[in-house]
Amino acid sequence: MEKTLISLPSKRLPYGEKVTDVSLSPFSGREEMLIAEITNDNFYKKFVTVFKNVLTGIDPIDLTVGDMLYLLIWEAINSFSKEYKVTYTCSTCLATNEAIIDLSKFEKIELPDSYKEPYAVTLSDGKVLNLRLQRVSDEIKIVDYEKNQQNSWMFRYALTIVDGEKKTMDIVEKMEYLKSLSTKDTSMIRAFQEEFKHGLDMRQNCTCKNCDALELVACPFQLDMVFPFGSGLKKYFRA
Prior knowledge:
The chain has helices at 29-35, 43-54, 65-80, 136-147, 153-158, 171-180, 183-195, and strands at residues 4-5, 23-24, 55-56, 83-89, 96-102, 107-109, 119-122, 128-131, 199-201, 203-207, 214-218. A hairpin with a 6-residue loop joins β4 and β5 (96-102). The chain is of the alpha+beta class. The chain has 2 domains: 4-110 and 198-230, no CATH class; 119-195, no CATH class. It has 7 helices and 11 strands. Helices cover 32% and strands 18% of the residues. It has a 3-stranded antiparallel beta sheet.
């Protein structure tokens, strides 16, 4: 299928000069077969497998989580439909509503042009810690870590610490280092991910059918956006 040049929300800034043009093609039946095998446990690994078929210019395992979400919604729109049904409760009258969200109208959130990795943050003792944004590869490691009944809280953020030129630490050392920091410092490390969150603002205004109140409705990513099934297939059938 024909590929489309993609402007990533990250502007390719986290990837350096090794990534130039990124292109994506809609899914075919081959990808649908792979998507049908997705579960909560294998989601990120299957994402990599599926997108290796349709994505060029970057290995999908290296994508930031924000870019991954953006590409998933692109596929939902271009492989299936931009319309997605949501159910929400009106905060004004408490009525239950069904609304059609237009996925193509989600606001794109981009990284600032000044962003560069590794990103240096200064801790409370004056020491500098280099960080990077979370990647798909990190999410795969986190899922595997949690399968062993491990608490992944520190593990998640330890993965984003970039080793300095003079010292390298393994993941256990990075976790122990995080545990030794004050909560002000660990909060700063967590806040870094929030500060540079990018991708899509997956919220849209909907009007309550009972009281006409305008509600900003969250529409988090769901697998049936890229693999419709059951009643969600009805709109695709033409007798």
